[in-house]
Amino acid sequence: MIDKNTLEKFRDIPTPFYYYDLDVLEATLDIVKKETKQSGFKVHYAVKANHNSRILKIISSYGLGADCVSWNEIAAAITAGFPPSEIVFAGVGKTDRDISAALNADIFCFNCESIPEMEVIDHLASIQNKTAKIALRINPYIEAHTHKYITTGIEESKFGINTWELDEVIKKLSSLKNIKLIGMHFHIGSQITRMSVFKSLCSRINELQEWFTSRSIDLEIINVGGGLGIDYENPEKAPLIREYFSLLNEFIHLLPGQKLHIEPGRAITGQCGSLISKVLFIKNGSNTLFAIIDAGMTDLIRPALYQAHHKIENLSSNGSIYRYDVVGPVCESSDTFAKYIELPETRRGDIIAIRSAGAYGEAMASRYNLRDLAPAIFSDEI
Ligand code: LLP
Questions:
Q1: Contact 107/160 with Cβ under 8 angstroms?
Q2: Residue 372 structural domain
Q3: Which one of 215, 245, 269 terminates a domain?
């Protein structure tokens, strides 16, 4: 909660900055922990959502594993306390250097996306005299009903292995002596809010299970990836973690001894973060009033890149309601956080919170226009 007291403290901190409410993060992790215990699922936090070292340390302290997409993420996860044996390495374009470093660190599993990648992992594992465990990322051809840039499991996606290639993959595996197939991996997209999408994924997984069983191939794990959305309209609302776990529990038919893995990112960190900014100028446009703030698309690129909606609050005004276009200072017209939204009368110096920014906010920041990176401030520091 950003209350009056917190607002007073914000006034003394140079803006923009990311504010992380640790009570919110921990409340979310408490639910994850409880659901994990009950279901027996293994949760790997998708580090790409937020790799802030303090956030990683808190998440690892709750016993989650990590889902990483680069050696640097793996190294950050290990430093934050995630055991290498609970780290998975995903990505459609893993470099040789990153694969070798991950093999050297003895991570749990590589989520593998193509035959050429399998060959390279096998070769690099043989150099280290190791057997790499892999899960095949399969493209299940399921429309995630989310923004097209974060849809990853349809026919034209670059991700995953096509089902028509599976016979060849299995044939290839028998000749690769330094990799061991342990599971199937999926990830159909992000910010998925229709639960029916996950049901479709479960059905598809059940069909694929039969494909493997009929070929006498045992799989230890089924990894359904991430994707659970959050409510950007209502930042105080916790993600539907309980409902999601119970859906997976009900609709995926695990075989005896199989374990279900999930890789949520946004659902864990999204609602704990806000980007805090100050209003620089109010400017008349032809048809609108611009509230120009000191945070820009370099701090939070989601609205510019995915036309994403984040709730925006003026924390320091309770005047009459007007409509504003809330924009940043960067030299791009896409540097717009929201158009024609209602805010209490807004003036220079007012403090603005852009909510639900704990996932893919700080992690996607850039220094375009040679702007400084917004620092992170935690609720227990102020
Ligand atoms: N697992 C895999 C293999 C992934 O590719 C991703 C996200 C996740 C898990 C975590 O997904 P989540 O639970 O956070 O939806 N920058 C975009 C999101 C890109 C997601 C990429 N992959 C955004 O700001 O919406």
A1: no
A2: 4-18+271-381
A3: 269
